[in-house]
Write a structure and sequence with these properties.
The complex is a heterodimer of chains A (142) and B (517).
Chain A lengths: L3 H25 L12 H19 L9 H24 L1 H16 L4 H22 L7
Chain B lengths: L3 H10 L3 H19 L4 H9 L8 H26 L8 H12 L3 H35 L3 H18 L4 H15 L2 E2 L6 E2 L13 H20 L23 H6 L1 H16 L5 H15 L11 H25 L5 H12 L7 H5 L1 H32 L4 H20 L2 H19 L4 H24 L11 H23 L15 H4 L2
Antiparallel strand pairs in B: 1-2
Helix pairs in contact in B: 1-16, 2-4, 2-16, 3-4, 3-9, 3-14, 4-5, 4-6, 4-13, 4-14, 4-16, 5-6, 5-13, 6-11, 6-13, 6-16, 7-8, 7-19, 7-20, 8-19, 9-17, 9-18, 9-19, 11-12, 11-13, 12-13, 13-14, 17-18
Classes of the chains: A mainly alpha (142), B mainly alpha (517).
Chain lengths: 142, 517
């Protein structure tokens, strides 16, 4: 059984917990002397829990196996696409980005039938526009 | 505690046309999304919550309850027809439902699932209505010290029961707590871990985190897993015999003990934090098979198998609300979503809810009962339609769900910053899922974090700055001892048996292949 995955994530959480305790929390959490519970107390305790559990995981890994590299490459492409879409929404708004995003996503997934593509590209964004702006009287993103 | 007139008024509120309409709408939507493999009621609820902002509290909550209940019924449809459970809960249903469908009886199998689901659900709702108010009176006697101890106990149970390893469960809970500390601290109101982003001053928005981790990450996972999955699934043919299309009264009545057993298991497990409906379904199935005179027929199309799983997984829904309404502690991801909807609509879950908003609570109970009847009615009328829905292309479903998530989170957080946070947590959720860390534990800890820290601060003040004075509260001591015992028990259980046939490790809202990748 492959135990490398858990050892790697355990090591990551060990380093993450230590980094939080020694660098991040001292820098980004204010110190307050008065009161019952300092703002740093709970984050510090939690950092140590993460670090200790990370080290335990290195020592006692499970047999969990992560997906293959292809899965992560595919996921990265989809995430990048969604990131670009969010950025584009800040520039031109949801109504222009949504049909393009839907079309690219559907083609990437493998849909080629024109009627289903039309439903996803035209009907769904239009229905969202009606629901949000006309019925709920709220603004669309962008 | 609550006047009888308030109880009656609460139940009466459900019968206004607008509230009934939203119950029906929620159930229809729930059954629809439950029938679509890949969406499910958890994702549907996560997406739907921001869209309920403009509604009054009762129709909004009734709508979400309808989505949840309808989703469990709908989830059985693809499980029976395609051996592809629409929800993890329905995986056990497929074991007997799919063979029955292959014998030319798909409608008999789906109808049995519907009837037993409604039966189990109604049973657990009655238990909820009966016990929650007295439990809330008991809960009111608890102070911050006991609440802290109770939360420690809840964390120990949830971390132990969910996911594949106690260590990973604790890491997930600690990460959830860590992210909940972002924003102002509850005692001094100083900003923490905001890294110069003042949008984070009030903390990370729950809709961004929940929708990112539960909906977007699941869509990303399925899109990255699917290879040209735009095609349609195979639907088994009907035998043509009218007897094979319906469930007779004799068949239903013969399953009465199975359904009562399933409903009881579902109600008990649902009332405990951390044990999802999937565990209840598998446990009920295993017990029914053991008790049967003909265990060999299970897995080959036995109606008792369907009745056992569906009555149990549906009974969890009502019982899940017992810790939520009485203690303010969500026991599952569904409950965490409902609690966030409560807060959006000005309801603070916990024992005071019965005192402050008793009419609304009993309105919710009424809506739950109504949703069961509507489930039965819509299920009877819509099953033939949902049979068609299971073959809808994933491409359209996923792209539409993504757009709805963008819009919903943008509405909930007033802008694209929340949408960006949602995407970050989607990536985080995807990584957690891929490496075997429970997102459900993370979200429950993230939700409970601020309350935990606030209660701890109050407890320290009450204990004169010394936590060792906790011996003054026997209840808190007992809860902490139980926490320690449960940790030892889980550790020894994990060491002795990694694989559990009852599938206790599969939590509500997580997929089975996470447990067995």
């Amino acid at each position: 059984m492959n135990m490398t995955t858990d050892r790697l994530t355990g090591a990551f959480f060990l380093l993450f917990g230590l980094a939080m305790f020694f660098f991040v929390i001292p820098e980004y959490v204010e110190d307050v002397d008065r009161g019952n519970l300092s703002p740093k107390t709970m984050p510090n305790v939690t950092s140590w829990v993460i670090a200790v559990c990370g080290s335990l995981l290195v020592l006692r890994p499970t047999t969990h196996q992560a997906p293959d590299a292809r899965f992560f490459i595919q996921a990265t492409i989809y995430v990048a696409l969604l990131g670009v879409a969010i950025y584009a929404m800040t520039l031109v708004g949801f109504m222009y980005v949504a049909p393009v995003l839907a079309l690219i996503l559907m083609i990437m997934i493998g849909e080629r039938r024109p009627l289903w593509l039309a439903l996803g590209v035209v009907v769904i964004p239009a229905a969202i526009w009606v629901l949000v702006t006309q019925l709920l009287e709220r603004a669309l993103p962008g | 505690m609550v006047d009888f007139s308030i109880i009656l008024a609460g139940f009466g509120d459900v019968f206004t046309p607008i509230n009934l309409l939203f119950v029906v709408f929620g159930v229809v939507l729930g059954q629809f999304v439950g029938a679509v493999p890949g969406i499910g009621p958890v994702m549907a609820m996560a997406i739907a919550i921001p869209f309920t902002f403009g509604l009054d509290p009762l129709p909004a909550i009734a709508f979400l309850v309808g989505v949840n209940k309808g989703g469990l019924v709908g989830g059985a449809v693809p499980a029976v027809l395609m051996n592809t459970p629409g929800t993890p809960d329905a995986a056990a249903t497929a074991m007997d439902g799919f063979p029955l469908a292959q014998q030319g009886k798909p409608l008999k199998a789906t109808k049995m699932a519907l009837f037993s689901s409604v039966t189990g659900d109604t049973f657990s709702d009655i238990v909820l209505i009966t016990v929650s108010a007295p439990l809330a009176i008991l809960a009111l006697k608890m102070g911050p010290v006991e609440i802290v101890a109770l939360m420690v106990f809840a964390f120990s149970i949830i971390s132990g029961l969910m996911g594949e390893s106690l260590i990973k469960g604790v890491i997930a809970a600690a990460l959830g707590l860590m992210f909940s500390f972002i924003g102002t601290d509850p005692e001094h109101f100083t900003p923490r871990l905001i890294f110069g982003y003042w949008d984070l001053f009030d903390g990370l928005a729950l809709p961004s985190v929940a929708i990112g981790m539960l909906a977007i990450s699941e869509i990303l996972r399925r899109m990255s897993d699917s290879h040209n999955s735009a095609g349609q699934g195979f639907l088994p043919p009907d035998s043509g015999n009218p007897e094979d299309r319906r469930v007779s009264w004799a068949e239903y009545w013969s399953c009465r003990y199975t359904m009562v057993r399933g409903a009881t298991i579902g109600t008990i497990l649902g009332a405990l934090p951390g044990i999802g409906s999937t565990a209840a379904a598998f446990m009920s199935y295993a017990m029914t098979k053991t008790a049967s005179k003909d265990p060999d027929s299970f897995g080959k199309g036995n109606l008792h198998g369907i009745a056992a799983t569906e009555s149990a997984n549906s009974a969890v829904v009502g019982a899940n609300l017992i810790p939520l309404l009485t203690l303010g502690i969500p026991g599952s991801v569904t409950a965490a979503l409902i609690i966030s909807a409560f807060m959006i609509h000005g309801m603070q879950p916990g024992p005071l809810l019965f005192q402050n908003q008793g009419r609304l609570v009993y309105g919710l109970f009424g809506a739950m009962i109504m949703a069961n009847f509507v489930n039965l009615w819509v299920g009877q009328a819509g099953l033939r339609l949902w049979v068609k829905v299971v073959s809808a292309p994933e491409a359209v479903i996923f792209s539409s769900a993504l757009l709805l998530c963008f819009v919903g989170v943008s509405m909930a957080t007033n802008g694209l910053f929340g949408v960006t946070v949602m995407l970050i947590f989607a990536v985080f959720g995807l990584l957690m899922h891929s490496f075997g860390y429970s997102m459900v534990i993370f979200i429950i800890a993230f939700f409970l974090g601020p309350q935990f820290e606030k209660s701890l601060s109050q407890a320290i003040a009450l204990l004169n700055g010394n936590l060792l004075n906790i011996y003054t509260s026997p209840v808190a001591v007992a809860l902490l001892v139980l926490s320690a015992l449960s940790v030892f028990w889980f550790l020894s259980k994990r060491t002795n048996a990694v694989a559990d046939t009852t599938n206790l490790g599969v939590p509500d809202g997580e997929t089975l292949d996470q447990k067995n990748p």
